[in-house]
Amino acid sequence: MRAGKSPCRRGRSQSPLVTPHGERWYVQGDGYTRPRLMRQTSGDDVEVVRAVEPGTRLSVSPRGDLLLAQLEICKNYSYYYDLYRLEPGGGLNRLTACGRFAFAALLDDGRIVAIRVVNGEAEIVVLNHRARLSAPSIEPHRARR
Question: Which long-range contacts (CB under 8 A, 24 or more apart) does 46-54 make?
Answer without folding.
Answer: 46/7, 46/9, 49/86, 49/90, 50/90, 50/91, 50/92, 52/27, 54/29
